[in-house]
Amino acid sequence: MIPNAKKFGEKLDNLIDVWGRFAPETKFAGMGIAEFKTALARSIDSRSQIHDMRSQIKGLIATRSAGDQAGQEVVARVICSILADADHGPNSAMYRALNYVPKSERASGLTHKTATATTAPTTTTVTSTPSVTPTVANATNTNTASVAPSTK
Length: 152
Fold this sequence. Notes:
With about 150 residues, the protein is mainly α. Helices cover about 50% and strands about 0% of the residues.
């Protein structure tokens, strides 16, 4: 059965550390600590190389991110230059090949709202002075707002 690589690596590191601190001269399973390390050299060396490569990858990712951030401005200037070029502009095949939508193919953004068959009744706020109460009879009074007739 193949052991879990991470757990086995942790177990291996712990065994070497503890063996070296508590019984460096003692032999277990007929081996001293040096012989044990020699027997597991492939595993130990591979783990060390993987650790080093992961560190290199982290550094390369940071370098790439910094380069990408600086490069975004340069890319934006080149795209703007392509748009302004007389031979290539916003309707060119080159602009489309760069995964941009040519100006001639863009939607206008104009939308036509369709009227619905039934509209919800709107409510109006009635404001009045304390001496005048709005009613249908005095709806034409200039001091009050008009009240919508009942639809029942």
